[in-house]
């Protein structure tokens, strides 16, 4: 039995690992000649780390995971701490730590774990054909590949999605722009083992520790879609948007490298009902493109892969296994997309009265409520 895996990102490599565990041969195809990840880093919460352990790639998290042992919110302008608490109770409750990691390192090590020479690069999917015997992938270079089924992990701009749905799903602008990158960790910006977030006016500035003595940073600003901004003006833009904010924020802006800072207009896609059509299944962002507001985009793709493997462990009947996968993943994935959207609206000032009420709640927060929410999300995954 052979699977065609479209996409060598986090979802595709997780799917390949999961299917290999069940004795399924996989051919992996990646659209670009060289993977250049969108976004500097990713927060892999405990459910994602559990998935990586299950898939035989836990060592990657050990290598790359940052020492994130505490969490804090600070008033963006005054710098005053609104709430600060240990994440140890969360780790003890769910049985695994969270691991913020550099995205480039994560994807590179996942590919290397699979075998870089076994991934076919510069293979961009053009269309999908299903036959009685299997599935055919047609690529833009004129080549084809045949297999018994296809796992389309080809991202938010998925080509395979329209084949499965029968229509072109539209991306929805979430209302804010995100700048992200990596800087050398510095306690003058934030404690070295803490996820620190500055908030105010519907804006957000965050730093997370990753391995190698670095901070992953991001800035969020509610803005209209399509502004003429790019890396050439990133520092000037951020200084304008965060004028009057606390000294650590200003120091962070000074430290960033515009050449390696990403600017992303954040989108998601309205959840849909079908992940599967015949012998083709969507996985990861192609199935449930989400905003990053609860840090579950990559984790959800890893969960997809784990469930996919579990379904093929129960049956090798392709269509039956794929339908079981869809049944087990649809509601969970939808829930995460909508949770992220709800958190996005609160965080980014869609209704500033609601956002201000959240700021007021943070000043009374002991950590218990935030940890309870994180715990609920983590334990809702396929591995508990």
Structure, described:
With 384 residues, this protein is of the alpha/beta class. It has two domains: 1-34 and 121-165 and 270-347, FAD/NAD(P)-binding domain; 36-115 and 173-267 and 351-383, 2-Layer Sandwich (D-Amino Acid Oxidase, Chain A, domain 2). Helix content is 38%, strand content 27%. It contains 13 helices and 18 strands. A seven-stranded mixed beta sheet has the order 5-4-13-14-15-12-16, with helices on both faces. Strands 7-2-1-11-18-17 form a six-stranded mixed beta sheet. Helix 1 packs parallel to helix 10 and helix 4 runs parallel beside helix 13 (368-379). The longest helix is centred in the last third of the chain and has 30 residues, at 318-347. It is globular.
The low-confidence parts are none
Major beta sheet summary: 7 strands, mixed
Q: Helicity, in percent?
A: 25-40%
**What class do helices, strands and sheet pairing give?**
alpha/beta
State the CATH topology of the largest domain: D-Amino Acid Oxidase, Chain A, domain 2
CATH-derived architecture of the largest domain: 2-Layer Sandwich
Which class of the largest domain in CATH terms? Answer: Alpha Beta
The Cα radius of gyration reads 21 Å
Q: Number of domains in the coordinates?
A: 2
Using the alpha-carbon principal axes, give the shape: globular
In terms of quaternary structure, the protein is single chain
Give the averaged pLDDT, no decimals. Answer: 97
Content of β-strand: 25-35%
């Amino acid at each position: 039995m052979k699977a065609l895996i479209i996409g060598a990102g986090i979802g595709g490599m997780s799917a390949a690992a999961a299917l290999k565990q069940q004795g399924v041969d996989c051919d992996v195809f990646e659209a670009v000649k060289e993977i250049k990840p969108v976004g500097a880093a990713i927060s892999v919460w405990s459910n994602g780390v559990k998935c990586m352990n299950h898939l035989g790639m836990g060592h990657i998290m050990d290598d790359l995971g940052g020492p994130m042992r505490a969490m804090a919110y600070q008033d963006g302008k005054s710098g005053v701490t609104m709430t600060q608490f240990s994440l140890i109770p969360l780790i003890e409750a769910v049985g695994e730590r969270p691991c913020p990691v550099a995205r480039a390192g994560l994807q590179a090590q996942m590919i290397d774990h699979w075998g870089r020479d076994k991934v076919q690069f510069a293979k961009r999917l053009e269309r999908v054909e299903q036959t009685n015997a299997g599935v055919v992938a047609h690529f833009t270079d004129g080549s084809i590949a045949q297999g018994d089924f296809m796992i389309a992990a080809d991202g938010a701009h998925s080509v395979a999605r329209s084949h499965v749905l029968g229509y072109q799903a539209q991306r929805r602008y979430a209302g804010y722009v995100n700048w992200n990158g990596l800087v050398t960790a510095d306690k003058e910006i934030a404690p070295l083992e803490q996820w620190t977030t500055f908030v105010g006016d519907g804006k957000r500035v965050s730093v997370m520790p990753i391995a190698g003595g670095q901070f992953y940073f991001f800035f969020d600003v509610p803005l209209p879609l399509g502004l003429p901004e790019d890396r050439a003006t990133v520092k000037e833009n951020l200084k304008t948007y965060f004028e009057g904010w606390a000294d650590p924020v200003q120091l962070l802006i000074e430290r960033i490298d515009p050449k390696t800072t990403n600017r992303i207009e954040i989108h998601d896609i309205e959840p849909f009902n079908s992940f599967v059509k015949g012998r083709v299944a969507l996985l990861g962002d192609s199935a449930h493109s989400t905003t990053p507001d609860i840090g579950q985009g990559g984790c959800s793709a890893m969960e997809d892969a784990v469930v996919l493997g579990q379904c093929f462990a129960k049956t090798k009947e392709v269509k039956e296994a794929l339908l079981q996968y869809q049944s087990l993943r649809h509601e969970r994935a939808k829930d995460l997309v909508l949770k992220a959207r709800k958190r996005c609206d609160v965080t980014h000032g869609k209704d500033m009265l609601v956002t201000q009420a959240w700021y007021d709640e943070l000043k009374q927060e002991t950590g218990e409520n935030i940890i309870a929410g994180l715990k609920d999300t983590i334990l809702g995954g396929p591995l508990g």
